[in-house]
Amino acid sequence: MSPERTTFSDRTSSNSPGVERICRILAGLSLVATPAFIIGLISTVLQHGIASKVVLWEFGLLVCLAMLIRVTIVSLNFYLNDDRRTFFQTNRHTCIFSAAWLSGSIILLAFGPVLPVWYVSSRGAALVAWSELFLLLIGLAQLLKFVSSTTSRSNPAMVFVVSFIGLILVGTLLLLLPGSVTSRASEVGVLERCRVAFFTATSASCVTGLVVVPTGGPNAWWSRFGQVVIMILFQIGGLGMMSLSATFALLTGNRLAFRESAAVTEVSEASTIRDVRQLLIAILGFTLAAEAIGAVLLSTLWSDLSFADRAFYGTFHAISAFCNAGFSLTGQSFLGLGTRWQVWGVVCSLIVVGSLGFGTLRTLGGAVWRSWRTSREPSSLFRHRRLREQLPLSPRLILTTTVILLAGGTITYWLLESVGVRSDDPFGKRIADAWFQSVTFRTAGFNTVDHAELQPATKLFSIGLMFIGASPGSTGGGVKTVAIAIVVLAMLSILRGRSHVECHGRMIPDSQVRYAVVIISMGLAATMASTLLLTIFETDSFSFLDILYEATSAFATVGVSTGITGDLTPASQLVVAATMFLGRVGPLTLLIALAGNGQTTNQYQYPQERVSLG
Fold first, then answer.
1. Of all helices (H) and strands (E), which one includes residue 554?
2. Is 602 contained in some domain?
3. Structural domain for 92, as ranges
4. For the whole prediction, is pTM greater than 0.85?
């Protein structure tokens, strides 16, 4: 439905001034078609966000003008084409779409609004609503067409993205089943149920933990079957669709296809495709073992429940913690339970282990095993290397950065909140809460305190921790610890006057430094774009800090909230859902997926020239 791509043969054999004038008009309109379309979409967003009560004629004029330009381009192309039948067959959808908008606009202007519209009953308001609908449909059609054409290139990253889309859609359908909800759902309409199911499926598949309705507790929206569906969604989402499907293929004896191996290599950061098999088996085995141990230990937290309920609660929260999902069945997460050993010990351990990344855990386990074996052998100068010297640079960066963030986060949170409303709490409780929040801020969505009562400085500090997120190849989100570590090392290299980024006796390639900067820049852009849209849709409803907190939590797939998620407008909840999806698949993965896998190598270089930086 893109008028700029419509083509025609020799427009006419005549060189009359009228035809030449039309051609010049067509060329001018083609140049402004795309900017006008973008401005029209922006006007639609602003209209429904800033001025949702009335129709501002400025926004409405821009929307109608954008559609008029597109329809005019299609009409002029059709008029000037020699073979109009062929032109119509080639651009059938574009022509029908343009004709539908033009016919509907004429009817609305001639007879007034014959159908219910979103604004006041007037011809102008009806025309604006009609044009907004077509602008949104055109944008959706172009996006689907672009994604479809990109998917056909067998891009491994695109397979990963499409897998998550499929998981979200399947989860939404399952959560819409009558058996998935309690009697509370019967009190709302069908559209509301669809929105809740879609948001919850997105949050679970993207292992975020933001919810618009209680998952469990006395006012639970979801039945036991619905809770099981949510648990399966964040289990699959945590492991990754391609990792899980490839593991099943291995267990059934089928050969792993090259396309699946390439996709898992892209996601799990295995060094070679040969390593994929062993890594997948290690992923599944370690995950099941960790979650089983966690389930047994966590079941003791609910000793007042029946054995079946204790087993389900322990399993649900163990999987949720290891996958960094943040979903809870208590209705208020672990509020007030920060001093229980199951919370500060078991839950935090599962979260940290899940956030380190499968490749890091495997490498660390191998290094520990080799160190133990060599310690039992006769002493040798070349055999007894320290554990950290046996680790490659990437795991060493991940472990070092994780320890710094956990320790620094605990101390900073304790200092900031020691002067707040919890300053009178016992020292042990304040330390336990500080440790738990430091862990959960970066990866999971649990909480032992009410985040709405946090100090503004604490919220701002936690936004930074959320943005950093977990480690590469893990179940968590964010821009990842390695990207932050590389950028910090690059800053230190510049301050020291070094020409390259160095760490632990190794030089990091310049290409990876650029990738780290791109990842952080795209993360900032996505977070700011989400915050901007939420600010537009939630005018005077919530504070800017709470909105930024919500947007960052969604992008980093953390799941903590100040309690505003359920009170957001439907448009804002869709923005949050889209942000969660983008944060889960990763900005760089999505960029690679949409860019295709065509490789080009420049055979030339431009001359270098310095620019002023300040």
1. helix 544-555
2. no
3. 3-151
4. no
